[in-house]
Specification:
By secondary structure, the chain is of the alpha/beta class. It has six helices and eleven strands. The radius of gyration is 16 Å and the shape is globular. It starts with a strand and ends with a strand.
Length: 202
């Protein structure tokens, strides 16, 4: 499938790297270069670094509502847009571009821990398990139906180790979802609003 990928941190870069082995990545959107860590120099996001290593066209727009950005995205003609920890809300104009819509790899067992920091919040809350869901994106904050979830025990894992493990689980779940989507065999599950919790930024 022709995929546009949107993501920013290492979690997303690990997923993107796996996608390159199975699908055609026609464009990558990520956050603009920023100061990351010590020093004052601007550094590219892990997703940008990954995309450039594969000679993929990279876009770093400040907003997705710009007409030029929307035109560029449409010209890539994606079958589906895959998103993982991008850090921006996708406007309706973006959600409707690809025939198969927008799939989000969200690092929680939805509807628990919608929002920005699901892995850290799961650890801080003392949850026994963390996980990933492949969700159909809509205008709400992580409110869409999901088709696949994968879980792992948190135990005494650090946030870094757990993030890497969830990225691997997320990549495999996304590949499975893409195959099911293309075959017309995907089954969506609505989130139970009674179980919703929010993962605010740390």
């Amino acid at each position: 499938m022709r995929i546009v990928f949107m993501g920013t941190p290492s979690f997303a870069a690990d997923i993107l790297e796996e996608l390159y082995w199975h699908h055609e990545i026609v464009g990558v959107f990520t956050r603009p270069d920023a100061v990351r860590g010590r020093g004052n120099s601007l550094e590219p996001s892990p997703v940008k670094t990954c995309a450039l290593s594969h000679q993929t066209k990279v876009f770093c727009p400040k907003t997705l509502r710009d007409e030029l950005v929307l035109t560029a995205l449409k010209e890539l003609e994606p079958d589906v847009i895959c998103v993982a920890a991008y850090g921006k809300i996708l406007p309706p104009e973006v959600l409707s571009i690809a025939p198969f819509g927008c799939l989000n790899v969200h690092a929680s067992l939805l509807p628990r821990w919608r929002g920005a920091a699901p892995i850290e919040r799961a650890i801080l809350a003392g949850d026994e398990q963390a996980g990933v869901c492949i969700m159909a994106m809509e205008e709400g904050l992580d409110t869409g139906d999901f088709c696949i979830s994968r879980a792992t025990d948190i135990a005494d894992k650090s946030a870094e180790r757990l993030t890497a493990e969830l990225a691997s689980l997320g990549a495999q779940a996304l590949l499975y979802a893409l195959n099911a989507l293309e075959a017309g065999a995907v089954k969506w599950v609505a989130q139970d609003e009674a179980d919703v919790t929010y993962a605010d930024k740390i």
